[in-house]
Amino acid sequence: MTAPSAGRELARMARVRPWEWALWAAVALAALALPRHALLVNEIAILALFALSLDLVLGYAGIVSLGHAAFFGLGAYTAALFAKHLNADPLAGLAVATVLAGAFGALCSATVVRGTDLTRLMVTLGVALVLYELANRFAGLTGGADGLQGVVMGPLLGRFDFELTGRVASAYSLTVLFMAFLVARRVVHSPFGWSLQALRDNRLRAGAIGLSASARLAAVYTLGAALAGTAGALLAQTTGFASLDVLDFHRSADVLLVLVIGGAGWLYGGLIGAIAFKLMYDFLSSITPQYWTFWIGAILVVLMLVGRDRIVRPWTWFRRTAAAR
Fold first, then answer.
1. Which residue in 145, 128, 100, 104 sits closest to 244, CA to CA?
2. pLDDT tens digits for range 144-160
3. Does domain 17-276 have CATH number 1.10.3470?
4. Sequence ranges of the domains in the chain
5. Residue 202, class by beta-carbon neighbours within 10 Å (0-12 exposed, 13-18 middle, 19+ buried)?
């Protein structure tokens, strides 16, 4: 394939297709049509953004992580502290949390891009555990085990207050999710995104043709950390609360499960997985509050034994057909 034709192909794939606009319009209409479930929609949007951030790191770059909650929690605490002590404007807090999480991700990338997958698992898990203990240790700043309370957010755009029904919160989170999705989509359908997939598939061969592995992996890890911080900031802003739970290991485990359900290496996998996971959680916990994790575990076992592609074969066919157009 010549350079001009490759450029045209990348430009074609980067364009948002009509079915994608229709899908996002359907999501927006569903959120408007279900005002009683606005809080659930808000949770799904935040989880989908968190999964999107991990998909860039894991699905496209092949960097395995067990501590992605470190950036999620850092974003949550940053937004909450910023609103409590400096400025209650949600957009300002969101920007600060995103930048700080991205900067911390850039700092951590120096250790993550080196070593084997096992090394990365231990390093990412260690970073998350260190932040968890620091948040617990400095209770005067973070609230410790009791959480950071008394966080009052200002009105969104100076006009829309965050009310108890969650309608403003869900619209806010869905808008941020959509904008982040457009950014991520542009990244993965660029020469940089294709180079990441080349590194994921065969790092030695990609390095042999002159691709700088460390720089590219560090860049995408920074971007993934920034988006995870954005998701954490949304959670703190829309709930008015931040606790040690945002740094807990289960956050990292849950977002991995979301990608297992929806599929990694495809941006819509995080969105589909977040919807499925949250609906399963909401349904199963209402039936068996004590044993809902057993049923989710059983579903995942079946998913792994049978194969996700066999279960969602019609959807896989649609996905491949849409990508070819």
1. 145
2. 888 888 788 888 887 88
3. yes
4. 17-276, 288-325
5. exposed
